[in-house]
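Most newcomers find our protein records easier to grasp once they have seen one. Read left to right, the backbone structure tokens trace the chain's path through space. Once this layout is familiar, the rest of the handout is easier to follow. The record below serves as our worked example for the rest of this section:


***
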Amino acid sequence: MDLQKIIEDTITKDFDNIKILSVNVARDVDFEGDEVLKIEVVFEGTRKDIDARKVSGAVRHVRPHLSAIGEMAFPLLSFVANSDRGRTELAPA
């Protein structure tokens, strides 16, 4: 299973109360030189539709699945309402 699919499946399962339109993943390096995965979750609705408790725990749910396939880059998640999309877009990992 590929990286994109693993992240998408995990996020979709955890956020079953909103419609996930896409999950975009891009590799990057943080200011300390560590590898990170910038993950943009595009959803239908508005920011108030997202449960903040689920957002804060999303990394804890994604990380074990990434570790299982040997991916060590830290996942940085951002949730973007489709209506707000277009300000930034990520290139595929």
